[in-house]
């Protein structure tokens, strides 16, 4: 009865067509019923405040929680750049490998994901899926992923690889546990083959579990547990990571590695904050004890004078990250900002950046997060990868370069011609910066608010110069949204957004 009711709601509200509704509900129903049966504190207000937090539902007071963080400010670190000694980090993310991708198949189907033989025949040649991928609702063929990684390796001297998650396709109504296992293994093998002698630091995406998005607490019915994901990656990632990382990987899919005496990488499972993770309704307090662990790791790093890079999948400033989790994460970043030299995310498929501001001095930028874009073209995007140049002494990001190719051009050339990769931009060159640091980037964002041409350049770079987004264009509301996303590290805090909107309003009046 519950299945029929939920399916009818899904179809009647036109959320999806019936086969998709049925497939998704079939996969989620056991979890939904378990939460209802076992959480007597479940209320409509609580559900709304998590799943629909963008609609302004207030969180019940008894659901609030905090992380223990030391008082005080992050001590200043007097570190001089080495100037000439640099390393290069490759950032790849969001493969969304589609093992069923079929060039020439229907790219304009009625399903959320097309470009496979099981979605019908193309109505005309313009509806045929391209060889290298497609701007429409399609994921990524294997040869496209291999091409991207090979190009990155062959054209750059790479010291480290950051992979920020999501290897499973968007066929969410058809996921199966064993298939996810197989695809994860295939993709980790692809990365390993491309970079056999280079350290790789991976994280999980929200698509890796079955059902999608559901990172369960450890205490639930074994039939609903996703412990198998952690067991799998503990084994698969052991080719890149030391034995000491297994304890926290098995606990919650996160870890830390001391790369050298003064450089530490922290890899998080930020998917637990994703509001589509229904288990937030059941276990909402710091799932897997991850944030308290993060605080403890950063405290030790501060004591030891270490520089830290943080990797995760879901960016915390998004409306899709549960605000209490994001608030506590921001509090930790604020306290240990001087040890944190970069934050690296995925998930959005767009190449953007985000600034964190001092909670006690809101005009001061204290940390910067970078989004790696995506290898997938889903949707309406070009494939890309990022190369960061870092100072070896301080591990500070001093510049980065974005590489991509035009998907229309690649598909017109066909299967026998490799895509023509090119550098879309270098951050310092594109935005005319002598140095790339927190002060110059914060100033740049304010200049974007008062300079439409600069804001349009950011739009082009964010959406990877893709034909559909260039054709669509970006009006004043679009510019405002893009810039506000840069300065928002907590969805409910509009402080910096309001500053930028004031600058934009003044600029428009000046004409």
Q: Secondary-structure blueprint of this entry?
A:
Blueprint: H1 2-12, H2 18-38, H3 44-51, E1 86-92, H4 142-155, E2 160-163, H5 177-194, E3 200-202, H6 227-236, H7 246-252, E4 255-260, E5 263-267, H8 290-303, E6 307-311, H9 323-335, E7 340-345, E8 353-358, E9 361-371, E10 384-391, E11 397-404, H10 407-413, E12 422-426, H11 427-430, H12 438-450, H13 452-462, H14 467-472, H15 476-486, H16 495-510
Parallel strand pairs: 1-2, 2-3, 5-6, 6-7, 7-9
Antiparallel strand pairs: 1-10, 4-5, 8-9, 10-11, 11-12
Can you tell me about this structure?
The protein has helices spanning 2-12, 18-38, 44-51, 142-155, 177-194, 227-236, 246-252, 290-303, 323-335, 407-413, 427-430, 438-450, 452-462, 467-472, 476-486, 495-510, and strands spanning 86-92, 160-163, 200-202, 255-260, 263-267, 307-311, 340-345, 353-358, 361-371, 384-391, 397-404, 422-426. It has 511 residues and is of the alpha/beta class. 45% of the residues are buried. Helix 12 (438-450) packs across helix 16 (495-510) and helix 15 packs antiparallel against helix 16 (495-510). The strands form 2 sheets. The chain has a 6-stranded mixed β-sheet with strand order 3-2-1-10-11-12. The chain is 36% helix and 14% strand. The protein folds into 2 domains: 1-35, no CATH class; 86-101 and 139-510, Purple Acid Phosphatase, chain A, domain 2 (4-Layer Sandwich). The chain is globular. The termini are far apart. Disulfide bonds join 10-21, 109-114, 115-138, 273-321, 474-478. It catalyses: a sphingomyelin + H2O = phosphocholine + an N-acylsphing-4-enine + H(+). Keywords: Disulfide bond, Glycoprotein, Hydrolase, Metal-binding, Zinc. Belongs to the acid sphingomyelinase family. Its cofactor is Zn(2+).
């Amino acid at each position: 009865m519950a299945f029929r009711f939920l399916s009818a709601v899904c179809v009647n509200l036109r959320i999806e067509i019936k086969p998709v509704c049925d497939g998704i509900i079939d996969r989620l129903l056991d979890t939904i019923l378990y939460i209802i049966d076992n959480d007597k504190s479940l209320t409509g207000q609580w559900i709304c405040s998590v799943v629909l937090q963008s609609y302004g539902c207030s969180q019940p007071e008894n659901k609030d929680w905090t992380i223990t963080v030391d008082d005080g400010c992050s001590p200043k670190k007097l570190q001089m750049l080495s100037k000439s000694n640099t390393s290069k980090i490759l950032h790849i993310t969001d493969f969304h490998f589609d093992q069923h991708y079929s060039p020439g198949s229907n790219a304009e189907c009625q399903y959320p994901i097309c470009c496979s033989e099981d979605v019908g025949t193309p109505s005309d040649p313009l509806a045929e899926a391209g060889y290298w991928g497609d701007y429409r609702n399609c994921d990524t063929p294997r040869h496209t992923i291999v091409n991207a990684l090979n190009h990155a390796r062959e054209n750059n001297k790479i010291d480290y690889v950051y992979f920020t998650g999501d290897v499973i396709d968007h066929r969410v109504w058809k996921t199966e546990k064993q298939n996810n296992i197989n695809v994860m293994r295939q993709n980790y093998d692809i990365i390993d083959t491309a970079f056999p002698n280079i350290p790789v630091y991976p994280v999980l995406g929200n698509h890796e579990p079955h059902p999608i998005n559901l990172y369960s607490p450890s205490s639930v019915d074994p039939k609903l547990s996703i412990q198998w994901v952690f067991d799998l990656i503990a084994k698969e990632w052991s080719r890149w990571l030391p034995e000491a990382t297994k304890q926290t990987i098995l606990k919650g899919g996160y870890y830390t590695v001391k790369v050298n005496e003064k450089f530490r990488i922290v890899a998080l499972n930020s998917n637990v904050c994703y509001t589509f993770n229904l288990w937030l309704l059941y276990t909402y307090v710091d799932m897997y004890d991850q944030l308290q662990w993060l605080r403890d790791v950063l405290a030790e790093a501060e004591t030891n004078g270490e520089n830290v890079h943080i990797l995760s999948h879901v960016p915390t400033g998004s409306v899709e990250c549960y605000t209490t989790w994001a608030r506590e994460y921001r509090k930790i970043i604020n306290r240990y900002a001087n040890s944190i030299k970069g934050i690296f995310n995925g998930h959005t498929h767009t190449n953007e950046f985000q600034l964190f501001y001092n909670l006690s001095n809101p005009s001061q930028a204290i940390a910067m997060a970078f989004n790696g874009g995506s290898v997938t073209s889903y949707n309406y995007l070009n494939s890309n990868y990022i190369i960061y140049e870092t100072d070896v002494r301080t591990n500070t990001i001093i510049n980065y370069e974005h590489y991509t190719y035009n998907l229309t051009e690649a598909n017109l050339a066909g299967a026998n011609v490799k895509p023509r990769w090119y550098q879309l931009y270098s951050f310092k060159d594109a935005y005319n910066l002598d140095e790339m640091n927190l002060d110059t980037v914060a100033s740049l964002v304010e200049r974007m608010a008062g300079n439409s041409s600069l804001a349009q350049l950011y739009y082009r770079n964010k959406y990877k110069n893709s034909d559909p987004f260039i054709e669509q264009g970006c009006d004043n509301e679009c510019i405002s949204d893009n810039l506000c996303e840069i300065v928002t590290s907590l969805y409910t805090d509009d402080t910096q957004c309001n500053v930028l909107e004031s600058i934009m309003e003044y600029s428009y009046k000046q004409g």
